[in-house]
Design goal:
Layout: H1 15-48, H2 56-77, H3 86-94, H4 96-130, E1 134-137, E2 141-144, H5 146-181
């Protein structure tokens, strides 16, 4: 199998975009490993040395959100996004052009929703930077919130582009199926 990311129908996405989604996914995975090390260090420090790692709870809560958005685009493009495919699977066998159209609608609606979420997330990022928002307690541990909000926006942009590319591939597939039928 070639190294290109493919949609659920086996159509390749642009190679440079494949590298981007896989890189974001890999960063999310590395972040998970770092969190595992942090949590284990906290547990061992707490139990063996009576000295927990300060800020573990805050960093874990921020990190989960960042990880989800880093890995979202690759999850979508690899077909691991949760959805019910009962009707779609049947249509792929019996009316493939209609299945492609429904896929295109699904991906277009996903792009629109991701655009709305992206629009809504911009102002909180700006405000977070402006007020120097942080988590934790002054004098103990604090971490800025804006880096995670920025990571969320990067993940949203990648997911929005993924939805658009998949909708375009669906429409191309529908056109090819209709031409072949004629």
């Amino acid at each position: 199998m070639n190294s290109e990311v493919q949609d659920a129908y086996g159509q390749p996405l642009p190679g440079h975009f494949e590298r981007l989604t896989r890189t974001l996914n890999a960063l999310g995975t590395l972040w998970i490993v770092a969190l595992m090390l942090l949590v284990n260090s906290d547990v061992l420090g707490r139990e063996l040395l009576n000295a927990p790692v300060r800020g573990t709870t805050e960093l874990v809560s921020l990190s989960i959100v960042g990880i989800v958005f880093l890995q979202l685009a690759d999850t979508l493009v690899s077909g691991r996004m949760t959805r019910a495919d009962v009707l779609l699977d049947r249509l792929k066998r019996t009316r493939p052009a209609l299945a492609a159209l429904l896929q295109a609608i699904y991906h277009a609606v996903g792009a629109a929703l991701m655009g709305v979420i992206l629009w809504a997330a911009w102002e909180p990022l700006v405000e977070s930077i402006r007020i120097q928002e942080y988590v934790g307690a002054l004098g103990d541990f604090t971490a800025p919130v804006w880096p995670v909000r920025l990571i969320m926006l990067v993940g949203m942009v990648a997911t929005l582009i993924t939805f658009v590319l998949l909708a375009w591939l669906d429409l191309r597939r529908m056109a090819r199926l209709r031409e072949a039928r004629s």
